[in-house]
Amino acid sequence: IMSASWKTVRVFISSTFRDMQAGRDWLVRFVFPKLREKLLKHRIHFVDVDLRWGVTSDQDSLGVCREVIDHCHPRFMGILGGRYGWVPEGKDKSITADEVHYGVLDRDAAKRGHSFFYFRRDEDTLAIPEEDARSGGYREFAQPDEIESFGLETAKVMANEQADKLAALKRAIIDAGLPVHHYEAEWSDTEKRLIGLEKFGGRIYDDLLQSLKDDPDLAA
Fold first, then answer.
1. d(CA 116, CA 130)
2. Looking at residue 52, what is its pLDDT?
3. Which of 22, 103, 153, 216 has its CA 20 to 30 A from that of 75?
4. Phi-psi region of 151 (alpha: psi -120 to 50; beta: other; left: phi over 0)
C-alpha cells in the first residue's frame, strides 16, 4: 500500500468496558503503535477510536457512538467476551449491541465495509475463578446494586437475560457471515487479569493491515 497523498484511516473499536481492559491495553500498548509506525511510511495516519475511555452514562452515549461510527466508517472492530454490556435506561440494547447493529448488522451487506469481530473463547472466560470473574465483571452475574434494588431472584433473572442477549448477538454476527475469530486468553492468578494475548493482537494487526492493502481509496 502507498498513498499518493497523506490520508487518515480510523477504526472504531466496540467492546464492553470492564471485561475487556486487558485486551484493549494490549492493543493500545503493542499493536496499534506498531501498525501506526508502519503506515506512516506509506503516508497513512492510523487512528484507533475507543469511546470506552471517554463516554459516560450522563451523556447521550448512543448518539455520540453512532456519530463516531459514521466518522470511522468503513472500519469497525467488535470484541466480545462474557458480558452484554450496559443498557441505558429505557433502551432494549446495550451500548455495545447498539454499536454492532448500527455499525454493521443493520446496514446492507455491501455497505458494511471492513468489519472484524473477535470473540474470546467461552472456555477461557469460564476458566476465570468465580470470585475474580464476579469482581472483575468478566461474566454476567446478579450485581449487588441490582440485588439491593430488585431482590436476589429478580437480579438472577436479569443476569440470565443479559447472557441470553449476548449469545443472540454473537449468533447474529455469525449468521450474517461476518468474519469472526475466536481468540485465546489465559487467566493469571498472580496478576489477576487475562494474559496470553499475543496471538489476539497479532491477528488484529494482520486483519487491519490486510484491509488497508485491499482498500483502493488508499492507492489514489
1. 30
2. 67
3. 22
4. left
